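Budget justification aside, the reviewers requested a transparent look at the raw inputs and outputs of the sequence design task funded under Objective 1. We therefore reproduce one unedited record. The lines immediately below are the structure tokens for a 183-residue chain.
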């Protein structure tokens, strides 16, 4: 809900040839119902292209300089290269894919699966059950994207934004810890 207001503050203060990139892992409620991707909201309000960056990169580990990798979803190859060059470092590997919507949806849906993993941990149901929750969650993520964002590539789910971020969040993420604490 804060994105449109924030974009209004930026309007007229950024160059018309700027590129936005969203690191927000979630959805917003669309006007008229349904869900809206944050990158789509940014593009509509700022009238510039918006790429997305998602992946198995827990903030504290990135800050400590630990190796991690990420996925940038960007439909424009030229912009994708610029963004990769901007973010890539020795400890931060960047892969650019043109499947931006799927990259963004992975970043949002993995949090739901992580809640399930946290409940499994809280109930002490074991690693086998947790693995099943993660596997089934990944399958549901793929189905969701197939239904609501047709044309996405299965290979995107095998990038850092997909299975790697899902595993990281289901073992070390905030959503998992909060869900475990509720049991």
């Amino acid at each position: 809900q804060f994105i449109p207001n924030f974009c209004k503050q930026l309007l007229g203060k950024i160059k018309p040839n700027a590129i936005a990139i969203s690191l927000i892992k979630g959805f917003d409620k669309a006007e008229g119902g349904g869900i809206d991707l944050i990158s789509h909201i940014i593009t509509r309000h700022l009238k510039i292209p918006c790429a997305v960056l998602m992946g198995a990169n827990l903030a504290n580990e990135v800050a400590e300089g630990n190796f991690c990798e990420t996925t940038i979803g960007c439909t424009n190859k030229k912009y994708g290269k610029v963004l990769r060059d901007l973010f890539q470092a020795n400890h931060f590997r960047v892969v650019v894919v043109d499947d931006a919507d799927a990259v963004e949806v992975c970043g949002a849906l993995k949090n739901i699966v992580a809640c399930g993993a946290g409940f499994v941990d809280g109930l002490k149901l074991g690693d086998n059950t947790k693995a099943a929750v993660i596997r089934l969650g990944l399958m549901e993520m793929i189905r969701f994207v197939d239904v609501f964002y047709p044309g996405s590539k299965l290979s995107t789910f095998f990038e850092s934004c997909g299975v790697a971020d899902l595993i990281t969040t289901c073992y070390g993420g905030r959503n998992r810890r909060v869900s475990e604490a509720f049991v």
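Strands lie at 20-22, 27-29, 35-37, 50-54, 68-73, 92-97. The CA atoms of residues 73 and 100 lie 4 Å apart. Computational costs for records of this kind are itemized in the attached budget.
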